[in-house]
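[Q] Does anyone have a clean structure-token version of this?
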Amino acid sequence: MALLGAAIALFAYTEISDRQAGSQLKDSSKVEIPGAAATLTSFQMQEGQIDFTYAAEQTIHAVVHVHTKSMMEASPDNPIMEWFYGGRNSKPRVENGYGSGVIISSDGYIITNNHVVENAENIEVKLNDNRVFSAQVVGRDPSTDIALLKIKADNLTFIKYGDSDQLKVGEWVLAVGNPFNLTSSVTAGIVSAKGRSLDILDSDYRIESFIQTDAALNMGNSGGALVNTKGLLVGITSAIYSPTGAYAGNSFAIPVNIVKKVIDDLKKFGEVQRAIIGVKIRDVTSEDADKQDLKEIKGVYITNIVENGSAEGAGLKDNDVIVKFNGIPVATTAELQEQVGKFRPGDKVSVTYLRKGSENTVQIVMKNVAGNTNIVTTEMGSENIFGAKFEPLGSSDKRSYQVDSGVKITELGDGRFKDIGMRKGNIILSVNGKRVKSTSDIREATKGENGLKSIEGVQSDGTMFSYQFRN
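[A] Here you go.
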């Protein structure tokens, strides 16, 4: 009888509890118990209110596997090493690379990371249905770590663009990619932060304003999709922050609003139309806030105005604090760079700034890195000289090779440079006794490819070279 009574009491308790939970779910507006809202939220979560299946179904077939092959240069001859170990490093070797990509149109345009395809001599794309295509590089942008590929295919499943500006911290997102060379895999997480700068891109004009998530990313996820629960593209996964190189809870993606502009430029012009406002900047500090009579320690502090730049023409000065760009609040340099990256030279935008506590707004005309509003095309930005194409050195290369200027050979075809032994990746410091900082400097020094008397530079292994030629 005692056991029977206990069982009846337990049943009654369970029934009452279930009824109370049911009544709370049906009419939450009448619940007056402190903390009840949190209880209701947990019940709703258990009822399956958040569903990732739709977003996954919309995206997995639009994410591809990217396989690259590049030729690594031979190591310098070392007779002692060859005596003991043979000449295994004395010959060029093929290096394989792997990553992910996102199909953005039915006719075969694919976004990936620049670091996935940089220096690649052969690129293959494998779709989720196991079809394999050869891919061509339409254009690359090291400043944002974005590259655009094209395959010859039609009627492909693709992902539509979302709006990364509307993404909120705490919002659920999915990362879709090809980690460890698997077919499309999906992981989930939340937006942990926005506007993160990691200082990992190798470019003087880099734009780093990453979306941070805790969605698991691993080797091979680079270039994959970050999507919201509606299946819309909100970012391109790019990096993880980890002491071991494996997933450790911090993953980063490039906001899609930056990606859209870069991709549009690459498709139309072959080169990104980089717009700048002509200022040197840093984040506001507490000392700045005291000196400038700021109410909050937020904003972008102007340390220097570039001569003849857009900012100078609009009346901005050293020590001004930018707080809005085209009406959008900016609290850090990363957030300002993200907004600037959406525009092209010639665009007119508003800049709101604080000067000694007083807020002002001015209109500025964006300029390019050359100080004008001209459009830069592939032919202008990457000329072919003596069979080679070049790009200016990034800050990382300058530090590595301890030089302050120069250009790197990015492509090498038949021509004078190939004939004299130049290789892809070589850095040219001077031509005909003149220091070079750009492709146009080489053209000027050789008088339009009409004379090559000398050339100096650095090989990719760090050794210097110097050639002299007879007229």
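[Q] Thanks! Anything notable?
[A] The mean pLDDT is 80.
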